[in-house]
Amino acid sequence: MNQALARRRFLEFLAASPLLAQQPPAKDTGMQDIFNVMDFEPRAKAAIAPAHWGYLRTGVDDDLTLRANRAAFDRLFLRPRRMVDVSKLDSSIELFGQKWPTPIVLAPAGSQKAYHPEGEAAVARAATRLNHLQILSTVTSTPIEDIAKIHRRPIWYQLYPTSIWDNTERMVRRAEAAGCPVLVITVDTQGGRNTETEARSVALDPRPCSACHPVTSDGRRGRRMMPMFQGFQTQEFTVHNPAQTWDSIRRYRQLTSMKLILKGLETAEDARLAVEHGVDGIVVSNHGGRAVESGRGTLDVLPEVMDATAGRLPVLIDGGFRRGTDIFKAMALGASAVCIGRPYLWALGAFGEAGVARVLEILTAEFRLAMTQCGTIHIAAISKSLVGYHSR
Ligand SMILES: Cc1cc2nc3c(=O)[nH]c(=O)nc-3n(C[C@H](O)[C@H](O)[C@H](O)COP(=O)(O)O)c2cc1C
User: Fold this and answer.
1) Which residues pair with 95 in a beta bridge?
2) Distance (Å, whole) CA 285 – CA 135
3) Pairing of strands 259-265, 281-284
4) Does the active-site annotation cover 287?
5) Segments making up each domain of the chain, as ranges
6) Cα 34–Cα 39–Cα 42 angle in degrees, nearest 5
7) Could you tell me which of 59, 74, 52, 58 has the C-alpha nearest to residue 119?
8) Is the pLDDT at 20 greater than 90, yes or no?
9) Atom 19 in ligand 1: which residue has the minimum CA distance?
10) What is the DSSP string of 233-295?
11) What is the pLDDT of residues 140-154, one digit of tens each?
12) CATH number of 42-389
């Protein structure tokens, strides 16, 4: 028997073997055509109810700030460096004494059960499996105690300061009791916002809100029945407290020993004030284009905030991060970490926990590749000299 014939017989023998017949078929994840995080967006749109899709997609007014976030990345190029031994690469960062394998953090986002029945819990399982920090929203659709239990390490809690101090205080106490070391106070929606794209989608969605949202006994849509709002003495409050000032920081300090981070700063002036008022960190953010209209992309804001803070506190950033090179650009400009929002929500809507994990894997692989190609074997090596601005 010649060699080729012998090989064929052997393969036929293998194919007929009962051992092989018992092997489960290769797992079909449904993600074979997902190559980057943007690929999740159309899949999510198909899976999510129209009104919820509008909430996920929306910016404010004409969505100019939303688009500015993405446009900012195109103005920067990378300056790759060659002939560096990149065989051992360490992409880990440290934040408030905790080490994380990458700078990729899951931004707080409300009502995740609107995209998948397992909501925040599915996100938590993916985050803890791949060792990423999750920031839980005030308007989480799963109680903080349940999410904290899923994680091996403490999560952070995002606070919308409500207009009733007693309500705010109760949420802070709950976050503390659940073991959160850091309170992320969102300050960019103070006084409200105009999420017009969302409003259009809600108007066009024929289903009654009560199909998805608990409704109060007097017939109001039940945002006030969210898990973190349970036990409030009064339900007459807004999460866009219009009365906050820099003096409020002192009050939070007296209330809690958690680290205080302000999320939503967009100017050098406010960054300086944050330092003066002793906050522990900043998230440069425009709420994913969902706060002020005619704002700048957050990557355009970052340099002035870095100058103003001069290394005195960690500066995180979010808004439009979709590629590992986007993350690299922010780290080169001095960011301590990068939060992502919509990509993991798209993935959650389309594939649940497995989708969220895939988003984290894709962004990690892309970021590490950008590090490799720029010859940076650890985060401290990622410097400003590795990016440049296109001339107009
Ligand atoms: C659907 C949705 C819900 C959000 N909910 C919250 C929230 O509850 N609290 C908060 O501070 N930010 C919230 N954000 C803003 C995110 O934390 C983050 O700033 C933003 O998503 C980053 O931009 P990206 O979506 O382009 O990645 C939300 C964003 C989206 C898209």
Assistant:
1) 98
2) 14
3) parallel
4) yes
5) 42-389
6) 125
7) 52
8) no
9) 287
10) S-----SS-TT--TTHHHHHHHH--SEEEEEEE-SHHHHHHHHHTT-SEEEE--TTTTS-SS-
11) 999 999 999 999 999
12) 3.20.20.70
Q: How confident is the model at residue 233 (pLDDT cuts 50, 70, 90)?
A: confident
DSSP 209: G
Query: Which amino acid residue places its CA nearest to atom 7 of ligand 1?
Result: 109
CB atoms within 10 A of CB 341: 21
Q: Which two tokens stand for residue 102?
A: 């990458």
Provide the 10 A C-beta neighbour count for residue 23: 8
* Alpha carbons 295 and 386: distance in angstroms, whole number: 26
Q: Which of 270, 233, 240 is nearest to 139 (CA)?
A: 240
Q: Which atom of ligand 1 is nearest to the CA of 283?
A: 19
DSSP for 11-44, please give it: HHHHHH-HHHHTSPPPP--S-TT--SGGGHHHHH
Predicted pLDDT of residue 67: 98
pLDDT of residue 51 exceeding 70: yes
Q: Which of 52, 116, 213, 287 is an active site residue?
A: 287
What percentage of the chain has pLDDT greater than the value 70? 90
β-partners of residue 282 are: 262, 315
Residues with CB under 6 A from ligand 1: 55-56, 69, 107-110, 137-139, 158, 186, 263, 285, 287-288, 290, 318-321, 340-342, 345
Taking CA 374 as the corner, what is the angle to CA 373 and CA 379, rounded to the nearest 5 degrees?
115
Measure 56 CA to ligand 1 centroid, in angstroms. 9
Mutate to test the pocket of ligand 1, among 193, 228, 290 (most ligand atoms within 8 A of CB): 290
202 alpha carbon – ligand 1 mean position (Å): 19
Instruction: Return phi, psi of residue 157, to 5°.
Output: -115, 130
Per DSSP (E only), the strands in the chain are 76-78, 93-95, 98-100, 104-106, 135-136, 156-159, 182-186, 259-265, 281-284, 315-318, 337-340, 387-389
Do residues 318 and 285 lie in contact, with contact meaning Cβ atoms separated by under 8 Å? yes
Closest-lying ligand 1 atom to the alpha carbon of residue 107:
17
Distance 278 CA to ligand 1 centre (A): 25
Q: What is the CA radius of gyration of the chain?
A: 23
The CA-atom distances, in angstroms, between 174 and each of 157, 171, 223 are: 10, 5, 19
